[in-house]
Design brief:
Low-confidence stretches: none
Largest sheet: 2 strands, antiparallel
Distance between the termini: 17 Å
Mean pLDDT: 91
Length: 402
């Protein structure tokens, strides 16, 4: 439960965590109804396995979902890594490196293994059934283990986050003053967020653009159950350690202070996010429409627009919540408490609901909202029930319950 004396910054970030899980659930719920997808799904066991990113493709489409998903795609995972890094250094100082990494391994590593090897086959069973000759579980399992990779779905975030935490522990042991240097870089962000914005934009551009020229946004690299997008991996690293630096200084001061300039200029960041999205989406659409025949430099403009939209959207979302949602909200409080658990289990409900709605005479917008609402309610209820068990509370909420 949120304590009544929680600071405005803490309350805003707590509410924001609950809101972000709504975005994640909505994003996955709407993917089946994108107007930009091919008319029919590809076979389950034939390359290039597009179902890894979009498991179910429905015949009902609405381009509004394309705009929503594209606008979230440019920033939401980076923002999640930023939020994840905020409390790493204070936790390291409080627990010490050994206890911290043990707790992280339990909280991230165990759910990752359970999610990959238990939940992901269950989540992808409907994908196989779409065009299966033999829809039985035994036939699915034979096809599943014959795949040249082990699909991880959204579980990739957990192992990646654990790896970044291990790097943070290494810095804590080998260079204990490194967080002070990161905090010093963000020290003036409270009074001058524009300077921090420019610095983060420059570092993000250096982290993203060179890799984006080599790898496509939909390219994945996988070693066993460990998957990642090579074009974004360094960018995720940047945002995690940006969060670590801001958090090392303390969220009540600096960039995320409730009375700092970031919150006061929320409208500027929202406008920047909208402008950056246009700078990215317009040249990207031209490149997709005319591959190999686009204007020189259009790809670079799109990549710069992506980075601009990403940094601006992260600033905008934080600023809006610091400005307008800095008081405890019962609904967002419950969502925040259960956000991690919802992230773990929601994909199963998303794919099954999308599958069950295939062929029904319902408009795409209605299907998307049904999947979103159904997934949220069932995931939320399941996680709340799981947390009544001590091990569930320990893994999902980091709570020890008798």
């Amino acid at each position: 439960m949120v304590h009544r004396t929680m600071s405005r910054s803490s309350a805003a970030l707590y509410n924001l965590r609950g809101f972000v899980i709504l975005i994640v659930v909505a994003f996955h719920s709407f993917l089946a109804y994108l107007g930009s997808q091919p008319p029919a799904p590809a076979p389950f066991d034939s390359p290039p396995f597009h179902w890894k990113a979009i498991p179910i493709i429905d015949s009902e489409r609405w381009f509004g979902f394309d705009l929503f998903c594209a606008s979230q795609y440019v920033y939401v995972m980076q923002f999640m890594f930023f939020l994840s890094g905020l409390f790493v250094w204070p936790s390291l100082l409080r627990k010490g490196g050994s206890t911290f990494i043990r707790d992280r391994a339990l909280r991230l590593g165990v759910p990752f293994l359970l999610g990959v090897f238990l939940l992901m086959p269950l989540a992808h069973y409907p994908v196989y059934r779409v065009d299966a000759v033999d829809p039985s579980w035994s036939a699915f399992w034979a096809h599943w283990i014959a795949l040249p990779f082990w699909p991880t779905g959204p579980m990739w975030f957990l192992w990646c986050l654990l790896a970044f935490n291990i790097v943070a522990v290494g810095l804590f042991w080998l260079a204990p003053r490194s967080a002070e240097h990161l905090a010093r870089l963000s020290a003036g962000a409270g009074s001058n967020p524009g300077r921090y914005f420019i610095a983060l934009f420059a570092v993000s551009a250096l982290a993203y653009i060179p890799l984006a020229t080599v790898f496509k946004p939909w390219d994945w690299v996988q070693f066993g159950p460990f998957a990642f997008q090579p074009s974004f991996l360094v960018l995720y690293f940047v945002y995690f350690f940006a969060g670590l630096g801001v958090g090392a200084r303390g969220i009540e001061q600096g960039l995320l202070a409730s009375d700092a300039m970031l919150a006061r200029r929320w409208g500027l960041w929202v406008a920047g996010a909208a402008g950056g999205f246009l700078v990215w989406i317009v040249p990207t659409a031209l490149i997709v429409e005319r591959p190999g025949d686009s204007l020189p430099g259009l790809g670079l403009i799109a990549d710069l627009g992506f980075v601009l939209a990403c940094v601006s959207a992260c600033f905008a979302l934080a600023a809006v919540f610091l400005r307008f949602a800095a008081k405890p909200s019962p609904i967002l409080q419950s969502l925040s408490e259960n956000a991690y658990g919802i992230y773990l289990v929601h994909y199963v409900f998303v794919v099954w609901l999308q599958y069950l709605l295939l062929g029904t005479a319902v408009l795409a917008i209605a299907k998307g909202l049904i999947v979103f609402a159904g997934t949220l309610i069932m995931s939320w209820a399941l996680v709340a029930a799981m947390c009544r068990i001590p091990i569930g509370a320990r893994l999902i909420r980091a709570e020890r319950r008798s």
